Amino acid sequence: MDEAAREYIDAIDPGHRPLFDRIHRLILAACPDAVVVLSYQIPTYKVGHRRLHVGVWKHGVSIYGWQQGRDGGFTARHPALRTGQGTIRLREEDAAGISDDELSDLVRAALAT
């Protein structure tokens, strides 16, 4: 992990840190070769030429950057969480109803090379 990404993560508000840490852990478990850097001023997980950006905002955590059709069916199952092309907005209460397996499937589909 580069220093800028580490600084971002260390500065996350404690109210959002458990959700971010859950997603971070799932990404690294699903893609252990992922490199974590800061891009677009948020942590970015790189595997080959694939990227997945994870930012913390006042609502919770947003996940960005997968290509159309590379979300493992996640947005079809959770259409209310998709707020734009390639963006998922997760609030803590939304994430509580989503299994680790389902989030891991999203990550694997998004970062598959």
Describe what this molecule looks like in 3D.
By secondary structure, this protein is an alpha+beta fold. It has five helices and six strands, in the order ααββββαββαα. It has a six-stranded antiparallel beta sheet. β2 and β3 form a beta hairpin. α2 crosses α5. The longest helix is centred in the N-terminal third of the chain and has 14 residues. The two termini are about 20 Å apart.
Give a brief rundown of this model.
The protein has 113 residues and is an alpha+beta fold. It contains five helices and six strands, in the order H-H-E-E-E-E-H-E-E-H-H.
Judging from the principal axes of the Cα atoms, what is the shape? globular
Number of helices: 5
Biggest sheet record: 6 strands, antiparallel
Strand content: 25-35%
Helix content: 25-40%
Oligomer: single chain
N-to-C order of helices and strands:
HHEEEEHEEHH
Mean pLDDT: 94
Uncertain runs:
none
Q: Would you report the number of β strands?
A: 6
What is Rg? 13 Å
Structural class estimated from helices and strands: alpha+beta
Order of adjacent strands in the largest pleated sheet: 1-2-3-4-6-5
What is the terminal separation in angstroms? 20 Å
